[in-house]
Amino acid sequence: MSHKDPKTAKNAEPAPRESRGPAIVSIGEYRIRREIPSVLPAFEAWCREKNFDVRGDELKARITAFLGHYARHNRNSDITFLNVQAFAATLDELMFFGKTNDFLDMTHVFGAYLEFLHTTGTWGGTHEQFVQLDTYFKCFSFPRFEPSYSPIPELQAAIITVPKLSEDEVTEVIGKLPVARRVLSFLKWLGPRREITSLKVLNKKHVQEAAAALDVDAVPVSGALPVGGQPTSGPVLFKSAAGVGRLELYWDALVGAGLIELSASRAYPSPEAIGFLEDPSANLVEVVRTIARNMYGAFSQEVSDRYQEMEMGYLTRYFLLEAAVEPINVEVLKHPVRGLPDLDPRGEPDIIAIAWRRLERLRDEGLVEIGSCLSIPPALLKPLVLELAKASEVAVRFKDPADEAAAFDNYPPA
Question: Where is this region: Disordered (predicted)?
């Protein structure tokens, strides 16, 4: 039951998790908020059992928002039976309310909710009424997710080849990566729970220990940070969790991977994280590849429209994908390309330097290799192309047909 949750590329800053989706202030939503506790715990438990990919506050916020809209059309607070007319009106309204991806996020959760009502016997209507509603939902013409990344015209003729590796080869390589050791160390530190702020990041009192679990020496400061930013040597100075770059990178990746669940004031290891800690070797490859995919994405999101203002996410992604095609000389990539349009970041030394600092951070986790050439570890080509290649319209060829059949579809043909 996996469903990718891409973010719109043109958003400078993604909305906080708890605020995604249309804002609804209505009597209908207030009624739903009173009713949702009667069914939410069972729905959350069902989602965990089914490995559904939305958890915690996001799950609650999306289903509450959807049912709140429905209640405005239906004029009652029944949440275990939905009539088709009000449901159809809700979908039509939400289609034109806010962003396409927010609508798809909500309906993705509602699809799980509808399945939950049916399979657990919670549905409050007749079988025929459920079939009518389910059929309408399945036949609804949904828009496509807006792409997370814009295409990369410079690589339209390129092909990334994902090699066929044995299970032992993949396990050996991934087990030696710094990211593998640090994920395990951080989850062990997390323990059963930790306090978080209203911004869904670790409470300041936890940051120093959390950073240490990730091999970062960090020191809190109460006043202003030094003029010019962090010192070039010594511990990282921080005023909050957002001030420790590696901690922020891992936190977002672990939350995005569903290994950490968030409530209003605490963070918990998910059932998947608990299982991983009990037997790390059993799921190490899957966990590290998922974390790697999120980290590749974190540095590749475009922070603005590249045709209005130069940005770094596009350039970082370009470098990653070009290195995935084949290892490429570092000096060639670092050298500004002359004769390009003014808005092309490949011609700007300052933009290139920022992109390289991002690549160096990925190198510190073992996700790229930087020597005389920039390259991608073969065992990590899978998560990289899964995250970046399709939306970038870069062709992929899989040496192992099982990879292509099991996990990758609708890529540009190789």
Answer: 1-20
Give SS3 for 290. Answer: helix
Dist CA 333 CA 374 (whole Å): 9
Bridge partners (DSSP) listed for residue 374: 328, 370
Are the C-beta atoms of 207 and 247 separated by less than 8 Å? yes
- Mean of the pLDDT values across residues 305-329? 81
| Extended beta strands in 29-81, E state | none
CA separation, residue 336 to residues 301, 342, 353, 354, 361 (Å): 21, 12, 10, 13, 21
The tens digit of pLDDT for each residue in 174-217 reads: 999 999 999 999 999 999 999 999 888 999 999 999 999 999 99
Please choose, from the candidates 216, 182, 294, 201, the residue with its C-alpha nearest in 3D space to the C-alpha of residue 248.
201
Question: What does the block give as tokens for 11?
Answer: 């958003």
The predicted pLDDT at position 11 comes to: 35
The token pair at 214 is 């990730």
- Give the model's pLDDT for residue 23: 39
Q: Residue for token digits 């909500």?
A: 106
- Residue reference for tokens 């799980």: 112
49-92 per-position pLDDT tens digit: 888 888 888 888 889 888 888 887 877 778 899 989 999 988 88
> E strand or H helix at 334, and its extent?
helix 330-334
Look at residue 158 and tell me whether its pLDDT is greater than 60. Answer: yes
Q: Under DSSP, is residue 234 helix (H, G, I), strand (E, B) or coil?
A: coil
Q: Where are the domains of the chain?
A: 17-139, 153-171+296-407, 173-294
Contacts of 126 (CB under 8 A, 6+ apart): none
Number of neighbours of residue 117 by Cβ within 10 angstroms: 23
Please report which residue ranges of 75-190 form alpha helices under DSSP H: 84-95, 100-119, 127-139, 167-175, 178-190
262: which strand partners? 267
Quick one: pLDDT band at residue 233, thresholds 50, 70, 90?
confident
Do 32 and 67 meet the contact criterion of CB atoms below 8 Å apart?
yes
Backbone angles phi, psi at 127, to 5 degrees: -65, -40
396 three-state secondary structure? strand
Euclidean distance between the first and final Cα of the chain, in Å?
28
Structural tokens at position 35: 């009713």
Token couple for 291: 């974390």
Distance CA 212, CA 238 (A): 13
Tell me the C-alpha distance between 21 and 235, whole Å: 39
